[in-house]
Design brief:
D-Maltodextrin-Binding Protein, domain 2, EC 5.4.99.5, chorismate mutase activity, Chorismate Mutase Domain, subunit A, 12 helices, 25% strand, alpha/beta
Length: 363
């Protein structure tokens, strides 16, 4: 004989089954409309991936939600739905610094979902070149880290290539020590990317000061190398341990718990305006007194919020610099257009790198 608790559970499960049937029907109906949108986009040569539309969907979903699930769960569900419908509209290829299991791969999955075709490439410049040549539609590259600063190769390629910044995202970085040998005293080699090794320098100094540090092109390559050589240990992500079948010797070995990397999505299209945008530019100035002050004063005079300023040495002229700046606003805003026009007269060179929605992680 069925107990009252079992009867109640069966009733609740039956209601869930009914709701599941409705959800499946509505998801597929939504996908059908998305597929039609894809045909319209294709005929009008409009971009398949739209960060502005992505922002709009997330905002509407979170505003309409009354709980009990947190907004982050709803965003994850909709990210996968949008990923699947983008794949229906058009097979989208996105390049990243590989191999599979890198933090760039993790950032790609968190940004685009699992239905996008991810293309691993050996270096950051290779990601830029693949996008620039039209081999792939988009790429995702790291541009700065909250503890170690900018990624030089990304800044250099933004200056040299013909791609634009199309979107941004932020990825929390947690490093783990991966390998087969659990006894730290027996580990003689550490494989890792330079910036990752630096972010774990205190832990390495305290626990593996005897080990040789060998630099690799990515954290995933470090894990892959350890898996192939069956020696040493890798500083990499937890996802790399799953990808390459390595044990997690120690988790969270980074020196700062809030360690975060900002990633850029690069492409050859422009993103329309949203309610909250960021514009990135790079410029060079005449080597004379007050030139930088003159350039920056334009933003203060028009109450435009500067979000970042970074200098990078010119390769052609010693002791002269390119200045990378992020500020609030879209390049198509009338005020921003006016400021950029004035700024151009005060610079030797000026390049607009892109306007794109400010990531919700940075609001």
């Amino acid at each position: 004989m069925m107990s009252s608790a079992e009867e109640e559970l069966n009733k609740l499960r039956s209601k869930i089954d009914e709701i599941d049937s409705q959800i499946i029907r509505l998801i597929q109906e939504r996908a059908s409309f998305a597929k039609e949108i894809g045909h319209v986009k294709k005929n009008s040569n409009e971009a398949i991936y739209r960060p502005d539309r992505e922002r709009d969907v997330y905002e509407k979903v979170t505003k309409q939600s009354k709980g009990p699930l947190p907004d982050s769960v709803l965003r994850a569900i909709y990210r996968e739905m949008m990923s699947g419908t983008i794949a229906l509209e058009h097979p989208l290829q996105v390049g990243y610094l590989g191999p599979e299991g890198s933090f760039s791969y993790e950032a790609l999955r968190n940004k685009f979902g699992s239905s996008i075709e991810s293309i691993p490439l050996p270096t950051i410049p290779d990601v830029f070149r693949a996008v620039d040549s039209g081999q792939i539609e988009y790429g995702i590259v790291p541009v700065e880290n909250s503890t170690e600063g900018h990624v030089s190769s990304t800044l250099d390629m933004l200056l040299e290539s013909h791609v634009s910044i199309y979107s941004e995202s932020y990825q929390k970085i947690q490093f783990s020590l991966l390998g087969y040998e659990k006894d730290l005293k027996k580990i003689q080699k550490i494989y890792g990317i330079r910036i990752g090794n630096e972010q774990c320098r205190n832990w390495i100094s305290a626990n593996l000061s005897h080990a040789e540090i060998i630099e690799t092109s990515s954290t995933a390559m470090a894990a892959k190398t350890v898996a192939e050589k069956k020696e040493g240990a890798a500083i990499a992500s937890k996802i790399a341990s799953e990808t390459y079948g390595l044990d997690i010797i120690k988790e969270g070995i980074q020196d700062f718990s809030g360690n975060t990397t900002r990633f850029l999505v690069i492409g050859k299209t422009d993103c329309p305006r949203t309610s909250s945008d960021k514009t990135s530019i790079v410029f060079s100035l005449p080597n004379q007194v007050g030139s930088l002050f003159s350039a920056l004063s334009l933003f203060q005079d028009h109450s435009i919020n500067l979000l970042k300023i970074e200098s990078r040495p010119m390769k052609s002229n010693r002791w002269e610099y390119n200045f990378f700046i992020d500020f609030k606003g879209h390049k198509n805003d009338p005020l921003i257009e006016s400021v950029l026009s004035d700024l151009k007269t005060r610079c030797l060179t000026l390049k607009v790198l892109g306007s794109y929605p400010i990531s919700e992680e940075n609001l």
